[in-house]
Specification:
The radius of gyration is 32 Å and the shape is elongated. It is about 20% helix and about 15% strand. It folds into four domains: about 90 residues, Immunoglobulin-like (Sandwich); about 90 residues, Immunoglobulin-like (Sandwich), CATH 2.60.40.10; about 170 residues, Cytochrome c-like domain (Cytochrome Bc1 Complex, Chain D, domain 2, Orthogonal Bundle), CATH 1.10.760.10; about 160 residues, Cytochrome Bc1 Complex, Chain D, domain 2 (Orthogonal Bundle), CATH 1.10.760.10. With about 550 residues, it is α+β, with helices and mostly antiparallel strands. The chain has a four-stranded mixed β-sheet with strand order 1-7-6-3, with no helix packed on it. It has a four-stranded mixed β-sheet with strand order 9-16-15-12, with no helix packed on it. It has a three-stranded antiparallel β-sheet with strand order 2-5-4, with no helix packed on it. A hairpin with a 5-residue loop joins strand 6 and strand 7. The relative contact order is 0.09.
Amino acid sequence: MLSQPNDLQHAVYIHPFSYDAAQGGKTFSDPDGDPLTYQITLGHAYNPYNDPNPPAGLHIEGTRIVGAPSEMGAVVVTITAKDPAGNTATNEFDIVVTPNGVPTVVNANDGALVSIGTAFDYDATKAGTVFSDPDGDALTYAVSLRGQTGHLTITGTHVTGMFDASGLAEVTINAQDGYGGSASDVFTIAAPAPEPGKPALPATLYQYDDHELAMPFIFRLSSDSRIPLWDSQPDDNRTMDAGATLGRVLFYDKRLSSTNTAACASCHQQQYGFAAPEAFSTGPLGVPTKRNAMALANVRYNIANAWFSDMRVDSLAQLAMMPIANPAELGISPRLLVTKLAAVDFYPPLFQAAFGTPEVTQERIGKAIEQFLQSLISYRTKFDLAYNPMTNDPPNPAAVLNAQELRGLDLFQGKGGVFCTMCHEASAQTNVWQSNNGLDAIPADPGIQVPALQRDGSQGMFRAASLRNIAVTGPYMHDGRFATLREVIDHYDHGIIKSPNLDALLMDSSGNADQMNLSEGDKNALEAFLRTLTDDAMLNDPKFSDPFQ
């Protein structure tokens, strides 16, 4: 008779498994004390009893089910006990085979700041606490280094050595469970240079609050109601004078790098429209970034509320924090940064002014930089005088622009088959459409990977760049391949490459890559118009400049 039915059992894909279906003789009992013999079968749920192809990886040894299951799902086990008289009893139960659980990072490394000339020994596993495996598998580790690694050595999971000057090394530790599962943790070890001095701030704060600025009507309207420029300011973090002042200090402070040698402004320079003059920037790690630094003028105007060229974050606060932690950019963990800034005497008062209390937190750092980024509004160009009046009156471009610039404006707005405004908003010139713009037949960079923004799984899609100050923000495109505005115009004129990923807006009615075939005069006119988007007032405004100089 059945005395102790088997409970549901669990196994892990390709992991060793062993289970006694007789439970040491407890599953069945015989009232006469007769010895029992057993028969065990294994089957799938769809054919549990006479399965000609039983679940792979398991077999029977006596009363034990052993092996390493190589199929996932339920294994139906039937065990039958028989006494010498031929009487039988049966128990049926399942073994559920689940996927291999991969290791996870549960105690990430914050990294370390070490002194120049001082030897150190850092255990990348933090005594085995960095990773956890859901199946309890023993983990093996591999450690690698990148960056300034000349005097550093890997011994097992330890990084040892010494920096003889300010430097930064990226450490990657990979944990493997032996069954195909792995996880990685990336952090930095840095020897900082001396900290910079204090910022010089005006006795009366600069004005950053929208309501204090003499902005054109369309900018003021968007500040209050979001549209028509798609102003992304969050209700709980609108730009205020004290918050943007703190954000400006943080934006330029080289303490935000692990080595005290780089800041946000290192890659986003005011004189270049808060972009960089190189195709790729290089931070303290000494390794070039993978994409061109995007300009920040009018960065707050964004219909999709998604930033970076691949649109992977949904707030400017996140946009601010990710480069800080990225080893290839500023390379310091947010937790180390909070501790570092809290120890600087001028920061608690700035946080007090911005947020009401002096506490330095990761969230507040992000929000303060967000406020400064929101303040980077370009509205004082020749184009704005022509097209964005201070009142709600109709614009009168002819009163401001010359004949060549007016022709360029016509082309920009679609007269002549150009339609720049399909991707670049007409008044603020910021992103309203992300696309694959025909740079390559096979994209080397996959671009946007957010499904909601990707459209049909296309590869090589990127957010359209802001055109404000476009004449000074080169080189252009996500990889900086075009050095001049004329090269960009030539690309859209006759250089678009047809591919399955090409955006339909850049195809003609036959499905081929569109060719504008502009005359030289029209190319010159379009370039002349784009130069009216240069905001010299913004490029030289002291409230956007480096307070540490």
